[in-house]
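Table 4 source record.
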Amino acid sequence: MFYRINPIIICILLLSSLSCNAQGVKSNYKINNKFTVEGDGGWDYLAIDEATSRLFISHGNITQVVDARTGKLLATIPDTKGVHGIALAPDENKAFISNGKDTSVTIINLNTLQFIARVKVTGMNPDAILYDPFSHKVFVYNGRSSNATVIDAKTNGVIATIPLDGKPEFSVSDGHGKVYVNIEDKSMIAMINATTMKVESTWPIAPGVEPSGLALDNVSHRLFAVCDNRKMIVIDAQNGTVLSSITIGDHVDGCAFDPELKRAYSSNGDGTITVVQETDANKYSVLENIPTQKGARTICIDTRTHHLYLPSGSYGEKPASTAENPHPRAPVMPGSFVILDISLVK
């Protein structure tokens, strides 16, 4: 017997199937903990030692080490004036900390957290910092002099200065000899050969403007650059082709990638994380925007537990503009500094 199928019913069934599939990949994140960390002052990058579950946090003129599981303060590394970033080198048992206000890098023992050395960089305002395990070199990006200082992680000595075409921001390594860095004021990415210590390629990332955070899927060879105009730009890390432009939250500064879940995270200072799912090497979609806290603009991920960590604080009232300070910032309230621990709902 032949039955005529109503096309309206077919459409309803297809829409229902798509809805179920979308629900099946919903990320379902929540704020698991808010760890209060003593002290006042601003913050920038943070990093996690996954082997020990220790968070290294930039905080004013000190660097704090916190147990990522409990929030307990384990150590305070003093005299890291204007600290910006922390690069961990587990195979060298060292951590390298960029000190923006005194043009130096502090080196500490990763296990004992004891001071090893302080190295003067060859530029102004060392900001983002990266350890490349392939070359055993540390790349220190100097924000006010458009260059990168290269430190030998074994000897702690400066071995090169790499000129860049503009202001460098965050950087990632593919672990096979290529290092990528955002050039903020030129809206592009530079690719550095870690062996020759020379820039081999520069790639524009339009429609992205003023990129800051950068992450890498090292399997599909995709870079994720988060930009000031509320865009996450996906770039082919092998040839610089722009593949996708995704709308994210405002006031972004950081980006992270979970290689197991195939998700990129944009930490937005407006109080959200934009979660982007990589379905395949050429297909990306926003899963959701997780509520966080205003000012939580930098991020790191523990790829084993899938926990995300973001520093933030509470803000007072923004002062009025003056001729001397036409763009004032709202002050951070004393004693309000916290680390947000965000995890998947089980």
